[in-house]
Amino acid sequence: MNTSPEVSSKEFWEGVLKSHWGIDAKLNSLPGELDQNFLAQEKNGSKYILKIMRTDCPDWLIKAQIESIEKINKKDPSLKAPKIVKSLQGAPFIIQSDQAGNARLLWVQGYIPGKCYAEIKQKTTDLSFSIGVTLGGIGKALADYQNENLVREFKWYLPGSLWIEKHLEVIENSERHGIISKIVKDFKEVLPKLSNLASQIIHNDPNDYNILISGDNYRPLNVSGIVDFGDICQAPRICDLAIAAAYIVLDHPDPEKMLAALVSGYNSIYPLSTQEVDIIWRLLRMRLAVSVVNSTLLAAESPSDDYITISQAPAWRFLEKLDFNEGLIRARLRSVCDMPIVEGADRVLNWISKEKGNFAPLFGVSLKNLEMKSLSAEKISVPENPFELTREEAKVIGTENDETDTIWLGYYNEPRLIYTAPAFKKGPWKASNRRTVHIAIDVFANKGTKLYAPMEGEVFTAEYRDSPLDYGGVVILKHTTPDNDEFFTLYGHLDPQFLDALQVGDKIDKGQEFCKLGGPDVNGGWAPHVHFQIAMTTDGMEADWPGVADPDDLDFWNSVCPNPASMLNLEEHDCVYNFNKKTEVLSAREKYFGGNLSVSYNDPILISRAWRHHIFDEWGRPYLDAYNNVPHVGHSHPRINLVASDQLKKVNSNTRYLHPLQTEFAEKILSKLPSEFEVCYFVNSGSEANELALRLAQAHTHKTGIITPDEGYFGNTTGALSISAYKFKKPNGVGQADWVEIIEVPDDYRGSFKKDDPDRSIKYANFVDGAIESLNSKGHGLSGFIMETFPSVGGQIIPPEGYLAQVYSKIRKHGGVCIADEVQTGLGRLGDYYFGFEFQKVIPDVVVLGKPLGNGHPIGAVITTKTIAQSFDNGIEFFSTFGGSNLSCRIGKEVLEIVDEEKLQSNAKIVGDFLLAGFRELKEKFEFIGDVRGMGLFIGIEIIENDGAESPELCAYIKNKMRENRVLLGSDGPKDNVIKIRPPLTIDLEDAQMLLETFSGVLDGTQDWHYE
Ligand SMILES: Cc1ncc(COP(=O)(O)O)c(C=O)c1O
User: Smaller CB count within 10 Å for the chain: N or C?
Assistant: First the structure.
């Protein structure tokens, strides 16, 4: 066969294109295996594809391609086939001699923008679904197309794939040889079935280079075109889907879900039969086998061409993965096509449902009207550490407050955090997916309680699984319905005594006693109960059923292991866990609260539990919390829980009564501050603390004017808002008060004076002069200067060293008070410094603390000098009802002690440095990271456009995409283009690594929107 001889110059073909099509364009070569393809671009930007076929290309093949493409376009122009551009004479193709005198067939197609699927980073199940939809549409459009020439056998005709059998010796590696031989053997088994399946003309090569993908910036990607109809032929239509599937599964972390999405997309447009669905897995593997054998043969012909070997690598990686389970894959594919997952599954379910009430009682007594108790993520606080259920916790779970002899039931489809063994984890990180949803019903009763078979069956499994937190004794029975359909029931956590009596294959009568509940010593370590589950098939699972499913894969597992309530003679809906749905909580919120109460993320998170630096949603999905600075020493810290409940049991009153806790807390805070600070005031929040700080300054100076940097935030009370430019400047904000002067934020990335200016700190500080003058001229005089030491909502800014020293000196020269809001920066977050002002080498007159001080309990504190406190002590009582309560002081003191004892400040330094270094590396790679700044675990990443302008759109995209990938971040800054990272100080290096890798992956994905 002749490949495309490049005997003619581009200029020659440019001339041909102009004279025959009137297209005056420059040509650029595109890759092509046999033919020559050019991208033709006109001066006005219009683009076309010029296809110059190999010399021996039969014209029937081109005619067939053109006919099929036109048929598709006629049926539905949105079907994403290329457009045929006819010549000036109206011909879809022409024959033209090349410069060597060979007759060549030429045709022109419209250009389709996009990137080939192989190069796309965001290979999502949604995209896979849309590929399925496109292929289904194309298949359907070609259903009635007939062309005798296309009844042809060639190497890519999938039913004819056995040609590779003769060449298997080229696979020298014996393991690989074995893999391909097995694929061939499996293929032979299904080959006869293939000839009975619906056959038609198909594209036959929807591989990952022939599927084009495009989309608007930061919007979901979609298929923009299916190209290269060169392998078109008559074949079972399922081959088209199997071929696409063979590429969809490659190098994807979740190939089964990608495959299921593809098949479901196809089926939604062009419904498949069960026979077709059942055969896909073997066909896709055979296609990959043909591909690797073909490439190996080619490689043998051209040993110097490394590319051939490299291009096989993804297929080998996939084929060498042996942990696929064909039975479950078939069931999964049937499930997404709304088919019974195995033959007869629908009949079994109907029968069980009808038989409800007639099954022999599992415990010999009716289970009706028993209490259902929840072990769900939202309802119970066991395990204390949702990453590690202890054996002590397991032993009493659910029975902590039980009297003996009570029987109660545990829900089906209940998300639980008690499954913490590594086997439940589905990814490398703590925040990776994890199986949480119980797909059985539990019956809790005393150990030794006897169990009776609900119906007759045969012992399928009788085993003892002695690993901790496994089943202990477990029995599976196989049952047959009157229609001769099989299904299975599983009984876990049994006393293994039955091992002496039960053998696989033994018949068990309906109502026959066959086992007993085990105690924790023999049942895997749990409080005594049976885990009762049914399954429609064991194909692929055998005795190893998952008793708990991934919430993101629940539909499938619910179809394999449906609700077993009927077999307990119970109503299904009574036994399904019914919890607060996100949508309901959201709409209740909208109903009861003001519209300006915002909720984070496009897809808000309904939270159920939190632990250290992880949050769990209602399904028990873990998220890495890299945003919340309030749980400073980690969410749900056991020491905080302990002191809080202890104190609430003793006394929780106010500062009008004496109690040592208040002064102990004050001493602890003062021990962290320079000796100039001698007096503490306790309040409830940062807002209240700032409000008080303003009063202290006014009382001390008898002036009212305040200077503060632009874009600051100090709280939601009237006074705090008046000094918060971040709020009062907003379009409907209250506007700037006369007594407030705003100065430029010392932001040396975006502000007036940049990092390269050695005098920038003094230049920023000089803005204070004009502000003081203005306050004096308006008659307010200078009361003080207030600043978040590192502006946070302003964009996580680190003011240049020396800035505050210059500012403070100016303020003090005019008698003003210097207030440092350390709400965001205090208590060790910065790693090198306990407070931000230490970095600036200054000592403020007033320090304001809030958020982290109570680890979630509402506390604020204002700390100042004796002199200022005396000025404030003007005969009017200072009292804050809850500020300084015994409980608050006990918690606050505990927080400070935990920071010290768990060395959280040095952890902030280690992990913060690691994160900053990682982000700086990413900045080198991605030009839309404009700036990486921060200190310890106070980090900002400025996201910009090509021209350096702020990019709030990309920033919002990154934030939401990170959330999708289980990492919680925030965004802020005047234009909301700064990614904000300030996790609890417990975050460790492993989680920091997850953050960086996830961030990098999300940024990589944004390249998908960049294409010609
Ligand atoms: C720097 C700063 N100061 C004060 C406050 C107000 O604190 P609160 O919300 O506890 O009133 C905040 C809150 O975000 C803050 O970030």
Answer: N
